[in-house]
Design brief:
The protein is built from 17 helices and 13 strands. It has 382 residues and is of the alpha/beta class. The strands form three sheets. Strands 8-9-7-10-6-11-12-13 form an eight-stranded mixed beta sheet, sandwiched between helices. Helix 3 links the parallel strand 4 and strand 5. Bound molecules: adenosine-5'-diphosphate and magnesium ion.
Length: 382
Amino acid sequence: MVGRLGSRVLVGRRCVDLPDLLAAAHARLGDVALVSPRLRGLDLSAIRDLRLCSVGVLGVVDPGDEAGEALLRQLGIRAFVGPDAPAPDLYGAVVGALAVPSSTEGSDETEEATPDEVAPRGRVVVVWGPAGAPGRTTVAVNLAAELALDGREVVLVDVDTQAASVAQHLAILDEAPGIASACRAAEHGTLDVTSFARLAPEVLPRLRVLTGLPSADRWPELRAGAVERVLDVARLDCDVVVVDCASCLEDDDELSYDTVAPRRNMAALTALEVADQVVVVGAGDPVGLQRLVRGLQELAGREVEAGVVVVNRLRASAVGPRPTARIQSLLERFGGVEDPVLVPLDVERVDAALLAGTVLHDVAPDSAVRSAIASVAAAVVR
Ligand SMILES: Nc1ncnc2c1ncn2[C@@H]1O[C@H](COP(=O)(O)OP(=O)(O)O)[C@@H](O)[C@H]1O
Ligand SMILES: [Mg+2]
């Protein structure tokens, strides 16, 4: 860990290992971390943590060590210096590394994209909704299917850290590698379009799925930097990435600046941050509608725009006669939502799809519930 004093570079601390380096970064014992590709445990999250501490990162690579440099590049490091660099070169490299804008949002990844990643990128559509199982996954799965049926290349990604269920909805084996493997590869700098394709099987024509965590207690594996990288790689090779995420958006602890600790809600927050469009799903009953209005306020507070609002499981028995008109006027008054998509409760058809482990198009192509979700797809690509 080094710092700059006038025209000199001062060593702030010679760190013995990665935890030592991260501690030094938190204590701001320097401005730039010099890291070798041989540093044990160095991964995407560690680099992100350093940058969140406003510490620049400089790779120290032996001349000719192309593999080492490539590894560091995969982790987003763009500045390098040799171990025996003469003083002026070292000084220039440190100053160059300082100049890398420190980011609290991870936007540096985009700025530092490698040439193959400047290619056209698919849109990221995040399906979010408040607590209480309003039908986020049902909408996400069928929305993804409708987009694929419409001729688009789609990747459905489950980043739910509370109750992932895309795999169950589509009857994909629990053992499928999914998001945990993708995040691990992202952390180690080995996730690219090819390795992503191996992790996300095609379940329907043009629809590939990266399944969620097989058990919720593995949520610490879904760290923000890795989730961001997974979505970035996913969008390189498709037209639309549909993301299913958990409902809770609160900062997990008061020490939200304690960036090193993993936080459970970061997967959803990261997805919402990188989203090109957000589909918000609420349940069509008094409890669900109240949560939906609150949820819309919460998103607005985070400066996330709700592009499409869906009221799911709509039925007159829970909201009274003429449910459509009622809900439209209620959402307009309290949520400022003008044209919500209303999806009826249809236990028979939705259960049939769930039982068969497939999408509504396969079991009930002419149903109102399917065509309502198809209109969400139309709104998303409008
Ligand atoms: N429109 C609907 N009609 C009937 N059942 C529905 C409908 N939407 C969702 N469901 C059912 O509600 C339950 C929760 O849906 P799910 O999509 O898993 O919720 P979430 O992802 O929000 O937790 C599932 O059993 C699903 O089949
Ligand atoms: Mg779900």
